[in-house]
Specification:
Helix content: 40-55%
Order of helices and strands: EEEHEHEHEH
Largest sheet: 6 strands, mixed
Distance between the termini: 33 Å
Strand order of the largest sheet: 1-2-3-4-5-6
Number of helices: 4
Number of strands: 6
């Protein structure tokens, strides 16, 4: 597991999620990826997203994908089924994603749109400051 990230004063503490880190800041789910997600980790991410959606009517996600990798097939299937069942108004900001992660996100978003008619919105940025700027719009 990586070293626990620092939280600024007034921010929620980071919580370990397997080898990843998770934090909920109001309407924003923040994740730091260290490899891919397994099924239990993906279930938690989906649950946190749904909880935010219940409270706010939409969900924002800030994902640090600098060290991301492919999730397990079970995790991908679970996420696909969850998205098919419920797509809230959303925006995901992905930091540090390599070209393969960017392409995969694009393909998933197009597939979700074809299957559900709903749109998953995302932006790719290089810094935390840029991510904050996108989410503050």
């Amino acid at each position: 597991m990586s070293i626990k990230p620092e939280s600024a004063e007034g921010e929620a503490e980071w919580e370990a999620l397997g080898k990843h880190w998770l934090r909920v800041d109001g309407d924003v789910l923040r994740l730091i990826c260290n490899g891919g997600f397994d099924l239990a980790e993906m279930q938690r991410v989906v649950q946190e997203s749904n909880d935010i959606g219940e409270r706010y009517g939409y969900v924002m996600v800030c994902l640090d994908a600098t060290h991301a990798a492919w999730s397990t097939p079970e995790a991908r299937k679970y996420q696909a089924n969850a998205i098919r069942d419920k797509v809230l108004p959303n925006h995901t900001v992905v930091m540090g994603a390599n070209i393969m992660i960017r392409a995969t996100v694009g393909l998933v978003h197009r597939a979700v749109h074809l299957i559900t008619g709903k749109t998953l919105n995302s932006s790719f940025v290089d810094t935390e400051e840029a991510a904050r700027a996108v989410l503050s719009r």
